[in-house]
Design brief:
Blueprint lengths: L3 E5 L4 H14 L2 E8 L7 H10 L4 E6 L1 H14 L11 H20 L3 E3 L8 H12 L4 E3 L1 H4 L4 H10 L13 E5 L2 E5 L28 E8 L2 E5 L2 E2 L2 H14 L4 E7 L5 E7 L1 H17 L2 H19 L6 H13 L5 E8 L2 E8 L7 H4 L10 H10 L1 H12 L2
Parallel strand pairs: 1-2, 1-4, 2-3, 4-5
Antiparallel strand pairs: 6-7, 7-12, 8-9, 8-13, 9-10, 11-12, 13-14
Helix pairs in contact: 1-7, 3-4, 4-5, 8-9, 10-11
Bound molecules: arginine (ARG).
Length: 399
């Protein structure tokens, strides 16, 4: 039987060419695999047909939008995931899901190798291949751009020569990856890090400098997950989609940073993640009133380590599993409502309420009738400050 290779297929030029390119270079049959993670654009049937027209022997397509939102984006939300305090791991969250479907397709169609369209310079190759090796150590991975000399010029030339049903004029200078959690844009003139992003870089967000009237939204959470918006029940996917629209209209969630890739390169990235950034802001504030202080402080460290692991492609690692257990446990009381004003590029929390709140009005208030015994504070401070007092006395004695 002819060897089979499952290719992660986007429907675009590079992976369309990769179908025939891999067949010619390896003699194997190619099975195309495409998943919908809310990237928008063409429907799965169009993509399936194009894969077959480009020479794939089979096509595996799956609508994974709910799966992505529930099992990947929500884990990111519970971890308030912001790599380098800025990037909500948009691409990094999708790779383990795509890898899972690559493995499923390999099993279904009897393939021993999987392929992806990444270059040899980025994080995504690492994420795919570490995920594959963790899920299915028996599978081999190849990347035609990296391993089989499939350059952009060669791809355009190949598509024209073989009359592939794909637009080959490459007038979009950017490399873009998008899903329901956000959108990542790199390359082109953005590689000069002094160049500001132009309007055409953005798609999920409108210009925050010319916003429509302010939009007030109330998000209800249950155990860290959004369950209703303005009183109407939502699934995780619907919550992200609705906030992409409403926060996107206000220009919320535009990010422009130079980022440390795992492979050692610093790269300039422009992101848009309106729904993700609004949800993270709301979730964080709900944690502020529902997590006990020491648990909250420690969770910050866990969130950061979780975020770096996921950025670095360790989704299916032992440590990530252990951190997930901590994070899930921490969400037990993260239920309640956050009210925010979305306006002019900012999602500002204006109110919070929760049956699980640790905020105690009677303890916090400076009004009459407060229940905090202020006289107890003196003794606490005497003892709390004692070791510093002793050290200072010693330093003065020793000159
Ligand atoms: N630098 C980001 C990351 O590593 C985004 C990469 C997305 N890929 C792209 N073709 N723009 O997660």
């Amino acid at each position: 039987m002819t060897e089979r290779i499952v290719l992660a297929y986007s429907g675009g030029l590079d992976t369309s060419v990769a179908i025939g390119w891999i067949q010619e270079a390896t003699g194997a049959e190619v099975v195309a695999m495409a998943v919908d993670v809310g990237q928008g654009g063409e429907d799965l049937e169009t993509i399936r047909q194009r894969a077959l027209d480009c020479g794939a022997v089979e096509a595996y397509v799956a609508d994974a939008r709910d799966e992505f939102a529930e099992e990947y984006c929500m884990r990111g939300l519970k971890a308030n995931t912001l790599y380098m305090d800025a990037y909500p791991n948009v691409s990094a969250l999708s790779r383990p899901l795509i890898a899972k479907h690559l493995v499923a397709a390999a099993r279904q169609y009897g393939a021993g190798t999987v392929a992806h369209g990444c270059t040899g310079k980025g994080n995504d190759q690492v994420r795919f291949e570490v995920a594959i090796t963790s899920l299915a150590p028996d599978l081999t991975c190849i990347a035609p751009v990296r391993d089989l000399a499939l350059t952009r010029e060669a791809a355009i030339e190949y598509a024209q020569r073989n009359d592939l049903p794909i637009v080959t004029t490459k007038n979009n200078p950017f490399s873009i990856d998008q899903n329901v959690w956000g959108r990542a844009v790199e390359t082109g003139f953005l590689e000069d890090i002094w160049n500001g992003p132009t309007k055409d870089v953005y798609d999920y967000t409108d210009d925050p400098e010319f916003p429509p009237p302010a939009d007030e939204v109330t998000i209800a959470f249950a155990r860290g997950i959004p369950v209703a918006i303005d009183g109407a029940p939502v699934t995780p996917l619907q919550a992200i989609e609705q906030l992409n629209q409403r926060a996107g209209a206000q220009g919320i969630g535009r990010i422009d940073i130079v980022e440390d890739r795992l492979v050692g390169i610093k790269s300039r990235e422009v992101y848009e993640a309106p729904g993700a950034m609004a949800l993270i802001a709301a979730h964080r504030e709900l944690e502020n009133i529902t997590l006990e202080r020491e648990q909250a402080r420690f969770k910050k460290l866990v969130d950061q380590r979780w975020t770096e692991l996921v950025y670095d492609g360790q989704w299916y690692s032992e440590l990530k599993d252990s951190l997930d257990a901590f994070i899930d446990d921490s969400q037990e009381h993260v239920s309640g409502e956050i009210r925010m004003t979305l306006h002019g590029g900012r999602a500002t929390v204006t109110g919070r309420r929760s049956d699980d709140s640790l905020y105690d009005f009677n303890l916090a208030t400076y009004d009459e009738g407060q229940s905090f015994d202020q006289s107890a504070a003196r003794g606490f401070i005497d003892i709390y400050g004692l070791s510093s007092k002793q050290a200072t006395a010693r330093n003065q004695r020793r000159g």
